[in-house]
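lol forgot to send this yesterday, sorry. struct tokens for the thing we talked abt
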């Protein structure tokens, strides 16, 4: 990093968008020299996997236009900084130019131990950075450094526990890193508690937890049902119990398996899941017409007809449908089942 005694014609200012709660001033003293106080005030906090920005402002204090080029140097990996400048830019007299220097460190920075290499005995968390501005003179094909600033990249684990300690402790950099140890240890349990409702909802619970949730509502697991169907059944088990033995309960059960619509606003004969009960008034003297509305020695009391109208490409397991009907209907009832695609 070269420095020049040339009187600068460009003023340079830095503004950090992520300031650390505390900084180790000794980490910068040897690097920044007389500019240590400026560098400390412009420390940039970087948390693994999170972007950070340092805003830079240039002002031309001279009386003529100047072509300039920016260079960023430091002891950090080059891929941490996304700054690219294809060619020198021009700044007019008294003009101000704002630029954003973007930094981002790997998400697994502390896990892969990049900062602890064979040449260091301690984990490196402060990286020295210098921003240099060069005046470019195309005629002479030369350039000269006219301004520079130094700052520190402070790599710290993100810790929310600092929000719960007194301000005096937040001023100590070590406290934040120390609390992160406990935060990372407790965080999985805290996150589980925050979304505990999702573990108790059959639609979102882990698959391994479904037998436990089914046991809660005394619902037997049938391996013929896929996972999606089992989730819906366990979720609606109480509703099925409530309407057990009724047409509404049977239709809802068949809906959960076939995913056919309930069609509540359609006449019974036009529904995708049609359940029609066959009732006759029987043989009533003076009202019954033989051969038209009654039949001697015939008739099937407590009998109903189930018709399913799936899409032509929808395959339905008739054996499973009959198992559902047998489970839901009253024991004394009989039924007939017809499965006919909608185009028939």
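and heres what i got for the seq, position by position
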């Amino acid at each position: 990093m070269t420095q020049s005694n040339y009187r600068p014609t460009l003023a340079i200012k830095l503004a950090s968008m992520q300031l650390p709660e505390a900084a180790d001033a000794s980490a910068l003293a040897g690097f920044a020299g007389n500019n240590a106080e400026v560098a400390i005030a412009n420390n940039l906090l970087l948390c693994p996997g999170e972007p950070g920005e340092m805003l830079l402002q240039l002002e031309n204090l001279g009386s003529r236009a100047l072509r300039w080029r920016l260079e960023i140097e430091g002891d950090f990996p080059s891929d941490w900084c996304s700054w690219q400048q294809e060619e020198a830019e021009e700044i007019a007299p008294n003009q101000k130019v704002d630029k954003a220097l973007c930094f981002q460190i790997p998400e697994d920075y502390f896990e892969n131990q990049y900062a602890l290499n064979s040449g260091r005995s301690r984990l490196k968390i402060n990286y020295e950075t210098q921003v240099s501005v060069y005046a470019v003179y195309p005629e002479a094909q030369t350039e000269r450094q006219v301004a520079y600033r130094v700052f520190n990249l402070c790599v710290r684990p993100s810790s929310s526990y600092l929000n719960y300690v007194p301000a005096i402790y937040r001023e100590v950099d070590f406290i934040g890193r120390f609390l992160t140890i406990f935060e990372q240890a407790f965080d999985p349990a805290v996150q589980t508690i925050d979304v505990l409702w999702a573990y108790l909802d059959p639609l979102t619970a882990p698959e391994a937890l479904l037998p436990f949730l089914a046991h809660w509502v005394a619902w037997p697991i049938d391996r013929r049902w896929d996972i999606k169907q089992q989730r819906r059944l366990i979720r609606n088990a109480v509703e099925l119990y409530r309407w057990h033995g009724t047409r509404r309960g049977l239709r809802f059960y068949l809906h959960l398996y076939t995913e056919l619509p309930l069609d509540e606003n359609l006449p019974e004969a036009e529904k995708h899941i049609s359940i029609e009960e066959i009732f006759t008034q029987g043989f009533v003297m003076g009202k019954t017409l033989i051969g038209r509305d009654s039949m001697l020695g015939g008739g099937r009391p407590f009998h109903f007809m189930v018709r399913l109208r799936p899409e032509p490409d929808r395959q339905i397991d008739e054996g499973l449908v009959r198992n559902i009907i047998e489970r839901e209907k009253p024991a004394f009832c009989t039924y007939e089942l017809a499965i006919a695609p909608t185009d028939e």
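The first strand starts at residue 10 and ends at 16. anyway ping me if u want another try
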